Amino acid sequence: MGRPFVQNIRFVLQILVLLLLLLPCSISAHSGDGSSQNTERETAGITESLGTKIPLDVTFRDETGKPVKLAKLITGPTIILPVFYRCTNVCSVLQFRTAAALQKLELSPVIDYRVISISFDEQETPDMAARSRKTYLSTIKKPFPEEGWRFLTGDRTAIHRLFDVTGFHFQRQGADFSHPVVSIMVAGDGKIIRYLYGVTVLPKDLALAITEARSGVAGTSIRKVMDFCFTYDPVGKTYVFNLLRVSAATVILVASGFMAFLVLTNKKRRPSSGDNQ
Length: 277
Description:
Elements: H1 3-30, E1 45-46, E2 59-61, E3 67-69, H2 70-73, E4 78-83, H3 90-104, E5 114-119, H4 126-137, E6 149-152, H5 156-166, E7 168-169, E8 171-173, E9 176-178, E10 182-186, E11 192-197, H6 203-215, H7 221-229, E12 230-233, E13 238-241, H8 243-269, H9 273-276
Helix pairs in contact: 1-8
């Protein structure tokens, strides 16, 4: 082999070794299972139950007061917002910001996803739910069907059957509540896929969570690709693009292809024994 060929191979191998050393650092720096277990269980908080199925046979009341089972509404990726409608603080902010994110979402409500606000206050009425529906849907400045975002109320039994399974813990404090602020993404079969925390609702977070929920089963090819390119940051409560990991993988593929090209090119240029005689 010629000296330039050997130098090229050595250079490519050095790059591959360097990137292989950096890749585990990238994975460990960005990976995370997204479980943000709340260590304070005294009053309110979240005990994540990823992979658990919520009871779809639970009956709530819709905006008109008619009974409706969750199974009728949860037929695909669904974002559940645990709120109480009299809340003028974080519950309102969560729903207003959800409405703003939905407006930028390039997906079709009802077809691709559905949102359900569910009151955990058994004293609230369907009239309150109807007023909330009017308030928040009016802020979405594009065609958005009412079926795409439902507002439910229920009795104490229904409320606790649902939220005990999701790990959503709240406590009444007079006319108010102590409760976490979270959006819960479930698949069409009721399986809990993701918890999105806080009142910061980003379209990309919703889109990625909907993609996860559409797969329905953790570990599918879609989930693996997403977990490689994006990871859920439990500190920032958002999905983060793994630039270093994706860049390293891309350079490794390009370098491997270049090395293969050098090997094949060198074989073609090597003179045969018959030519040297």
